[in-house]
Specification:
The complex is a heterodimer of chains A (121) and B (815). Chain A has one domain: Rieske [2Fe-2S] iron-sulphur domain (Rieske Iron-sulfur Protein). Chain A has 121 residues and is mostly beta strands. In chain A, strand 8 and strand 9 form a beta hairpin. In chain A, 0% of the residues lie in helices and 39% in strands. In chain B, helix 10 packs across helix 12 and helix 21 crosses helix 23. Chain B is an alpha/beta fold and 815 residues long. Chain B is built from 27 helices and 38 strands. A five-stranded parallel sheet of chain B has the order 3-2-1-7-19, with no helix packed on it. In chain B, strands 9-16-10-11-12 form a five-stranded parallel sheet, with helices on one face. A five-stranded antiparallel sheet of chain B has the order 21-22-25-24-23, sandwiched between helices. Chain B starts with a strand and ends with a helix. Classes of the chains: A mainly beta (121), B alpha/beta (815). Bound molecules: flavin-adenine dinucleotide (FAD) and iron/sulfur cluster. Chain A: One of its GO terms (biological process) is nitrate assimilation. Chain A: One of its GO terms (molecular function) is nitrite reductase [NAD(P)H] activity. Chain A: It comes from Planomonospora sphaerica. Chain A: Keywords: 2Fe-2S, Iron, Iron-sulfur, Metal-binding, Nitrate assimilation, Oxidoreductase.
């Protein structure tokens, strides 16, 4: 996964990347859900402005809701808590910090101009 | 080498010698004991009749100590420093210790020396009583004190029909007052013992053979008995001291100073024979302390005896009796339950705040819980402490002794819990010895554990070390308006799903604009963030407010049409309104547009906020009703709608005492009276149901609203996260909350009033505010990059003519 803070120059490679929204569509410490090739991807912007992307499916409840969870930190790790039963996932690794046997997928996300792009394998 | 001579070998002498040898006393110890056996546990004497052997009761004798049994000392030559025994043996001493104990007092009644009369002090006495009882049918004990009742228990155990004769007006006059004595009497009589109080002894009657045949009372009545036991008190054995000219008390006892030294510096006196500051101690605890003090002095130390606590707690004939502190006071409070035979009395100072002492019969719990407060301010009103066991948050002082058997203080237990991370009673027992002997403090140990647990978890989460109530005050006093400011100044990290909603709720309670404005939106749990209730498939349910449960047919039709048009599953709630299920995020604004246009507003079913004020139909229609319950319910619901609180708030109003609205199951419930309204608070359904407590009676509507305003605001200020009013009220104590709200004991009511006025004035419908603002509306899409696309994962199936969610099997999800 890649985290890119500010507008980079134009030499970004475009293959495999999909623009999903404007950076300004994201609010600090909130998530949104985007649909890319039938995949539901939760995209988060942290307080510092960093971007993360994970799957939207909450593996504990089976509901597609992770983008609606509360974004915060555990220690230094940026996290999201499932809005259903509050299991906390690392935004960096996708691993569930309350149950390390469970994880959600993570996706590369970057800023290209004013646009947020994710890459779905 | 110092020659130490000890006269008497009872428990006190045993403890002295043990302490000296343990501490490496270098002199030579000689003990001269009158009884034919070494010292034994006199406290456990009665167990000898129940089958214990003399050996079982006997204390060990340390090596190197010379013990002369059956040798009563008859004279002390203080100039020649020698004692002489009855058999003519002379024993020189450098230091002499008198530990001669006491002897039973036998009143000078005719016949007291007859065959069949006994005292109850030594193993020999018990052997004699046992032998006499073999051929007897009835026995009588003279003296209804602690030892008399113990003797009576013994006679009963030996199969005798047993009577107790007490000169005083009631049993155990030294430990309990008249009321307690009466309750105790009930217990004793129910065991089949005859109790004769206020009765003296005229004489002990004899049969032709000169053996005891009965006890004649002054009124001439004779109690037939072949065994008589005198237990009319004890007298210190100070005869040796008197004859050799040592100072003795007017009413007996060998006078000693704080170091247990008599008027002759070479002679100490300890135990029941000693008189310290005018007191003779008849309990083994202080006697042991005296032995330790004397041992220390003999070894050159400075230990001093201080007047001892004479509190007693015992189980006599299966009845708990306890007395602690003073036995009178300016005021007293009594709890009495004649059915179970419980009598409890507390003596307090004239302002009813300081505990002076107490008496318990039948249930000695107050002894365990309140004895540590003697001489201190009580943690609650005396009657509350007796009737309810006191508020849950009763704080014990650190130096209060929790386990009297092993002398373990509250402070020691708390530090053991904290330092060693103890988590249960078994660990406390192993670590501190508290609770290992009689076990009566075990309930207390549990409470202490619970309390320290609560203290440990006071911190809200890893981001804030404060409790919710503390954060509330920080936000209020500092005028903080954003989470970022609060966490930057008073926390760490960037928050989590625990602290963010708490702070969101605090900010909302203090009136900081719309809950989706600016940063606040990111703090909200999903329900608040979408102003709807998330369901198991990720859809939401919608609940429009129907104040008091009153709705026009036209509005009912609108709800029906909306539900039909959006395909929502429809259900009537327990709070007298209608819940519409299965709405997708992007449908919520469309649904609400229709509802708001028809005059509905948010019902806050999603918030930790006021839910509904349920009502019965009341006096307008009901032939029993005495007030307009619907009118009041609507007024209250409109007043408190949108009020954010630590947990949800529910209310109800009933139009008369028949209580059809179930108001006493609510956080605040109102029941109409002929004169106005009764307010009940702290009710709860759910997991731990609780009936609400009466808070105030016969209020006018204005008074009622004022009281509820303050009650709610005080709760919002001080409760923990997700703490319903029921638990909060129990923690705070009903009386305390009454004082704050009804009497303004904290002087904050004006603030509470102003805060509620701000809430009422600042109320605006949250849903209308969303519909009016495109920025807020932006959140209501399933996919930002495909706003028109519904979430393909959401599917429904029919059930009973409506829809139900179709869920993906979890196994499929997890793999
Ligand atoms: C039945 C019973 C139940 C009790 N229950 C309790 C209770 O539950 N709790 C409690 O705290 N206390 C209780 N007590 C009181 C407790 O037993 C006494 O406080 C304790 O025994 C005092 O010990 P002592 O060594 O000072 O005196 P004692 O036990 O009286 O011992 C003194 C010894 O000195 C000997 N002696 C006396 N004069 C001479 C002499 N001139 N020469 C040689 N030897 C002499 C005596 O024969 C005796 O053996 C009870 C007492 C009795 C009798
Ligand atoms: S509580 Fe009283 S007034 Fe209300 S419906 Fe019942 S009977 Fe009627």
């Amino acid at each position: 996964m890649t985290i890119l803070r500010e507008n980079l120059d134009t030499a970004l490679e475009t293959a495999g990347w999909t623009a999903v929204c404007a950076y300004t569509d994201l609010l600090p410490e909130e998530g949104v859900c985007v649909l890319v090739d039938g995949h539901q991807i939760a995209v988060f912007r942290t307080f510092d402005g960093d971007l993360y992307a994970t799957g939207n499916l909450d593996p504990f409840s089976g509901a597609w809701v992770l983008s609606r969870g509360i974004v915060g930190t555990r220690g230094a790790e940026p996290t999201v808590a499932s809005p259903m039963h509050k299991q906390v996932f690392s935004l960096v690794t996708g691993r569930c910090l309350d149950d390390p046997a469970t994880a959600v997928p993570t996706y590369p996300v970057r800023l290209s101009g004013g646009a947020v792009e994710v890459r779905v394998p | 080498m110092t020659r130490l001579v000890v006269v008497g070998h009872g428990p006190t002498a045993y403890r002295l010698v043990e302490t000296l040898t343990d501490r490496g006393f270098g002199g030579r110890i000689t003990i001269l004991g009158e009884e034919p056996r070494p010292a034994y546990d006199r406290v456990a004497l009665t167990s000898y009749l129940a089958g214990k052997s003399a050996e079982d009761l006997t204390y060990p004798v340390p090596d190197g100590v010379v013990l002369r049994l059956g040798s009563a000392v008859t004279a002390i030559d203080r100039d020649g420093r020698t004692v002489t025994t009855a058999d003519g043996h002379a024993e020189p001493y450098d230091v002499l210790v008198l530990a001669t104990g006491s002897s039973p007092f036998v009143p000078p009644v005719p016949g007291k020396d007859l065959d069949g009369c006994f005292v109850y002090r030594t193993i020999d006495d018990l052997d004699a009583i046992r032998e006499a009882s073999a051929g007897a049918t009835a026995g009588v004990v003279i003296g209804g004190g602690l030892l008399g009742l113990e003797a009576a228990d013994a006679l009963r155990g030996l199969g005798l029909e047993t009577h107790v004769v007490e000169m005083g007006g009631w049993l155990m006059p030294r430990q309990v007052d008249e009321g307690g004595g009466a309750v105790l009497r009930g217990h004793i009589e129910s065991l089949g013992l005859g109790v004769h109080t206020g009765a003296g002894v005229k004489e002990i009657a004899a049969d032709d053979a000169g053996r005891v045949s009965g006890l004649v009372k002054p009124d001439g009545e004779t109690i037939g008995a072949q065994v008589v036991v005198f237990s009319a008190g004890v007298r210190p054995r100070d005869e040796l001291a008197r004859t050799c000219g040592l100072a003795v008390g007017e009413r007996g006892g060998i006078a000693v100073d704080d170091g247990m030294r008599t008027s002759d510096p070479a002679i100490y006196a300890i135990g029941e024979c000693a008189l310290h500051q005018g007191m003779v101690y008849g309990l083994v605890g202080p006697c042991f302390t005296m032995a330790e003090v004397a041992a220390d002095r003999i070894l050159g130390g400075e230990a001093a005896f201080t007047p001892a606590d004479m509190s007693t707690k015992l189980k006599l004939l299966g009845v708990e009796v306890a007395q602690f502190g003073a036995m009178d006071g300016a005021l007293d409070v009594t709890f009495m339950d004649p059915v179970t035979g419980v009598y409890q009395k507390l003596f307090v100072s004239d302002d009813a705040r300081t505990l002076l002492g107490g008496i318990c019969v039948g249930d000695a719990t107050p002894y365990n819980t309140l004895k540590p407060f003697v001489g201190r301010e009580l943690p609650g009103s005396p009657s509350e402490l007796l009737f309810t066991g006191g508020p849950a948050n009763m704080e014990l002082p650190a130096e209060a002794v929790v386990c009297s058997c092993n002398n373990v203080t509250h402070g020691q237990i708390c530090s053991a819990i904290a330092d060693k991370g103890l988590t249960d009673v078994a660990e406390i027992k192993a670590c501190t010895r508290a609770g290992t002997t009689c076990g009566s403090c075990v309930p207390m140990l549990k409470q202490i554990l619970v309390k320290s647990g609560v203290e440990v978890s006071k911190a809200l989460c890893e981001h804030f070390t404060y409790s919710r109530a503390e954060l509330f005050d920080i936000v209020r006093v500092r005028g903080i308006t954003t989470f970022s400011q609060l966490i930057a100044e008073h926390g760490t990290g960037r928050g989590c799903d625990i602290c963010k909603p708490v702070v969101a709720s605090i900010l909302a309670s203090l009136g900081n604009g719309h809950i989706l404005d600016g940063e606040q939106a990111a703090l909200q749990d999903t329900n608040d963030r979408y102003l709807a209730n998330i369901q198991r498939n990720g859809t939401y349910s919608v609940v429009p407010r129907i104040p008091g449960g009153e709705i026009t047919p036209d509005k009912l039709i609108v709800i029906g049409e909306v539900a039909r048009d959006f395909g929502l599953y429809t259900k009537i709630t327990g709070g007298q309104r209608i819940d519409l299920f299965g709405a997708r995020v992007e449908q919520l604004p469309l649904i609400w547009k229709r509802l708001v246009d028809a005059g509905f507003e948010s019902g806050h079913a999603y918030g930790k906020a006021l839910r509904t004020v349920k009502s019965c139909v009341g006096s307008t229609w009901c032939r029993y009703g005495v007030q307009d319950s619907v009118g009041l319910a609507i007024a209250l619901e409109l007043r408190y709608r949108g009020l954010r609180s630590p947990h949800k708030l529910k209310s109800a109003v009933s139009g008369c005492a028949r209580e059809c609205a179930e108001a006493r199951g609510k956080d605040f419930g109102i029941i109409a009276t002929e004169l106005g309204w009764n307010l009940y608070v702290g009710g709860n359904g759910g997991f731990t149901p609780r009936h609400a407590d009466l808070f105030a009676s016969d209020l006018s509507t204005d008074e009622l609203i004022r009281v509820i305003d303050r009650f709610l605001m005080f709760y919002i200020r001080t409760a923990d996260r997700l703490q319903r009013t029921s638990v909060w009220l129990e923690n705070q104590g009903l009386d305390y909350v009454k004082e704050v709200v009804l009497e303004d004991s904290l002087g904050i009511c004006a603030e509470l009033d102003a805060q509620m006025e701000r809430h009422v004035a600042g109320y605006a419908d949250e849903w209308r505010a969303v519909l009016d603002d495109p920025e807020r509306m932006r959140r209501f899409v399933s996919f930002v990059n495909a706003p028109g696309t519904p979430d393909p994962s959401i599917a429904f199936a029919p059930e009973r003519d409506q829809v139900k969610p179709v869920l993906i099997p979890l196994e499929a999800v997890r793999s």
